[in-house]
Amino acid sequence: MLFSLRNRLLLIFTCLLTIPFIILSLIIPSFFTSVIREQTQELTIEMMDQFSLYVDSISTQAEDLGKQVLVDQTTQEWIRLNRQGAEKKEIDALMNQLKQGLSSIMINNSNAMSISVLLDDGTGTWGVHSSLHETDWYQDFTQHNRDYVKSHLDPFQQSHEMQQKKINSYILPLIDTNTMIAAGVIKVNFPSALLETALNKITIGQNEHTYLLNQQGENILSGKIKTPNSILKQSLKQINTSDDQEGLIEASYQKEKYLVFFQKLPVGDWILISEVTESDLFARANHLQRNLLLTSAVLFFFTILASVILSNNITSPLGKLAKALVFIERGDFSGAKRFMPQIKSRNNEVDYLINVTEHTIDQLQNLIETQYEANLRRKDAEYKALLLQINPHFLNNTLEIIGSLALQGKNKEVMNVSIYLGKMLRYSLNTKSNIVPLGEEVNYIKSYTNILKLRYEDTITIQMNVEPDTITIPVIKFILQPLVENAVKYSFSEKTFADIFIKIEVVGSHLSLSVADKGMGMSEEIISDLLSQADETLHVLESKGNSIGLRNVLGRLKLTYGDDFSYQIESTKNEGTMITLLIDLKRGDRQNEGINHG
Fold this sequence. Notes:
Helix content is 56%, strand content 19%. The protein is α+β, with helices and mostly antiparallel strands.
């Protein structure tokens, strides 16, 4: 029949798709170019803002380190001895002490920053710099008042390896704080690679160029400037005369139009510039346009084919069946069962599908009521039993720390421990969700390690290295504190000091959390027992206290992540232990709903 459903669907789909297809082919070039331009500008500014924040964090850290060294008593005493012409032996002894302090700062610094202290005559902590006043960075500081200098090599650093790498530096005057007389400079160095790596993440085209320049157009980092000189000069002139902190400049050179994005950074006179040509920027847009047109043509063909195949006794029952599935999606199986009798079809295949769906609803409802809910209750009970094993054990240890400090009359330390404990208890008592962003778990362990540092003072060192990109990853609570507690326990069991190392990073497709110590280590029997447990959860529930902290963590992780969780234990007798927890990030989306953002 001419007006059968099949023919009507064919006519309707032909009109609906042919007209938009023609309009799309005519309008998309200008529209798509405009959209790409706006999105590129927004994305570029966003990336520049992120880079600006990163540079600001590095510069803030560099300035803090420089001021810390300036006001240090050892630095000030070294200045005075040199000015007073003290004996070389006395000056050398104080210099060695200053070197140790600078080395300690570098070791503990996450950005591999190093510090040099130089007197006006070239005498420095890492050697005598006789040509100090002739160096470019020193002249930039003294003649151009630039606190932050360009990338350069510095042969007067702590190690040969550092001397071979290019660095940027923050320079501040070395002043005798008593007399306010300048005696030299303090030079805080940070690897140029830090800025270059972050700079390379700003991408707006296949052949774009991104630079970090000063107001004179000099490259702050290494590498050659490939942007035409006339474009660069024209852009810098507009940037320097403009009050805007960021924006877009358009310029032309040899019949090519350039888009120059800029942002003035809060560091010195640094300017971040990202340049791309319009032809390069819209190359991918044109390519995408062609692919879109091709995809539209293919979609048009298959849609016409589908309209020929469909008929009323298929589409109508299936539409009603989809409504019944909405009830199932909401968990309303009773509503779905009440709706199913309304669905009728003379098509054998569709009728069979309706019957199977109705039978499946009955089976799912029975399965959830008799098995799933029972298993869920069992899993929830096991999880809470495991979680409750941590709190009394930890609170007992913390109260012992407070009691010990109180007996020693250390009121300030008692107050600090109480503050840290309060933060931890607020975290522990938040029962809205057992899934939190990793950053909250890291803050919790920082409070815990601060308590340990107050208790053990100089006999314990705790180093924590956390990749910034990991802090938003959802994880279950209380997975680090028991491991750190065990590491401290085994370190002090046979030694008078404890060195604890905590590292959190993404390795491949896994989130890796490792805790290492230099303690007595585990015996092969204990390691073998832990690695061979077929059901960590049951074993923890039946445990009498042996390795309960580690078993607790493994049990809870196994309950939550199942096969997506694994762990490694590396231990050498009398040398230490490293425990690594590995969580497959593929299941991250399933955990996001459990995060408590309130």
